[in-house]
Amino acid sequence: MRRLLLALPFALLPLVAAQAAQAHEHEHEHGSLGTHEHGVARLNAVLDGQALELELESPAMNLVGFEHAPSTDADKAKVAAARKQLEQPLALFNLPSAASCSVAKQELESPLFGDQPAADHDDDEHEETNDGHAHHHEHSEIHAHYQFTCTQPGALKDLDLAQVFKTFPATQKIQVQLISPSGQQGVEATAKAATLKF
Q1: For residue 22, which of 5, 104, 149, 150 sits 20 to 30 Å off, Cα-Cα?
Q2: DSSP 8-state secondary structure symbol assigned to residue 6
Q3: Boundaries of every domain in the chain
Q4: Residue 132 phi, psi dihedral angles, 5° rounding
């Protein structure tokens, strides 16, 4: 399984190159464009035998509505609610019961969960305003990594992301890199086109 995930970036280089060219073109039209884009999440999915591995990366804005460290009770409640949803991957990814999948391992990471101080986050940017003062932008992300064991992997015909869009409505699209027995593909899922074929 690990070797498949390691091979994923190399197998999908043509797709990445095309996306980079689009981003570069977009950069010239609209200024700087980073990989951190509100409304857009990324999902890597690998199905290998009975093992299914999903890795979701999203700006915190998509999942909790903000990216700063939670300081109010309302902010803390939003972070706790999002974490609770992410801790239920069988429901979140709507895996069919016929596949008999169970969670073998799951990891959730984000500065908002207290994993690392927001001030130490690598994606922070500093920008000078017109009055010469530095302005600080936080770019917190949430990473969720799941490993499932599915005793009936043949029942996994589709990957249904509808519940992800329903649970986190600020997520407008998910860029998916998918490797399965039928091959590899890079697709973009939206709430209206949320089902992908394995």
Answers
A1: 5
A2: H
A3: 37-113+139-197
A4: 90, 0
Q: How far is C-alpha 11 from the chain's CA centre? A: 19
| pLDDT tens-digit readout, 74-111 | 999 999 999 999 999 999 999 999 999 999 999 999 99
Nearest Cα residue to 176 out of 41, 59, 6: 41
CA distance 138 to 183: 37
Sign of the C-alpha dihedral, residues 2, 3, 4, 10?
positive
| Cα–Cα distance for residue pair 102/185, rounded to 1 Å | 25
Instruction: Give the residue among 43, 63, 40, 61 at the shortest CA–CA distance from 173.
Output: 40
Residue 120: φ, ψ to 5°: -90, 0
- Cα separation of 186 and 179, whole Å? 9
Q: pTM score, two decimals?
A: 0.73
Asked if 60 and 83 touch (Cβ cutoff 8 Å), the reply is no
Fill in the DSSP letter of residue 169: T
Tell me how far CA of residue 33 lies from CA of 18, 37, 53, 71, in angstroms.
15, 8, 29, 29
Report yes or no: 132 and 71 within 8 Å, Cβ to Cβ: no
Two tokens, residue 68: 């700063």
CA distance 6 to 163: 28
